[in-house]
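Sharing a chain and its predicted structure for anyone who wants a worked example. Both blocks are below, sequence first, tokens second.
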Amino acid sequence: MQLHRSHLTHSPWLGGGAAALAVVLWALVPLLAAQAGELPPLRLSALALLAGALGTLPMARRRRHRDAPLRPLHGVLVYLGVPLLITGAVGACFAAFTLAPAEEAALILYTWPVLFLLASQWLVLGRLSASSLIGAGLAFSGAALLVAPQALAGGVSGAWGGYLLAALGAVCWALYSLAARVSAWRLGERMPHLLLIASVLTGSASLVLEGTIALPSLEVLMVAVSLGLGPYGLAMLAWDRAMRDPLGHRVGNLAHAVPVLATLFLVLAGVATPDWRLPVASALVLAGSMTACREPARGEHILASRPFRRS
């Protein structure tokens, strides 16, 4: 893995605006998913990903680049590995919301920016800074505050299973963001194909695990389309643009606001009734994220600002 400077023209607002748009759309996922209660999670994932594939098609076509074709191994990683990550991230996300309270699962799911920061720092610098480790500890302690009652009650079932699925989704999103920083892969331009492959994979899993069901109501279908066009369509392209920004490591820090925004939307909509653990856990996740994203030692930020490139 080699590093190189991005050829994107830097604008003080373009990368940050793209990241902010993705953050707001992702924060709406728990609220939208709560409106599709009658649809099994994998079926909802398949429909949302299909809508995302169709919605991103015209935008991706305008950005098409005439590059050399991917090497065989890279092609497998892009067209199989990345769709599997998307399938795992979206499917685990919706399944977690059905097994655990949405506001608690969302806080665990959206610890992925911390995982992404730790992994990217390790890949670029070969080590983890003290601030990153302290920040990760704070963020994960916020998630542990929500999990602890279920863990003490014993058994891997119910909400506890939802927490595990949310953690799996967080890992998948962190790995996807790492893949988005491999500039030669140009995931944004391949997004319709990647989402379509992920939709087929998720739909196949749904048929095996959930069986056949009646067609969803128009209202539920519109929720699935909204999820596809917004959080898993436009937001994916916006995040790809943000990650390829010369200051991607900084604008990507906006993702740390997702768990707090998601919780706020759920509370304002009356879906969640927070107890004392929810605001405390939100504060710990946000504080940990901000601590983890503190600027590294002088000179190291030059490396951290460069996107990855496969040789």
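Comments welcome. Residues 1-9, 297-306 have pLDDT under 50 and may be disordered.
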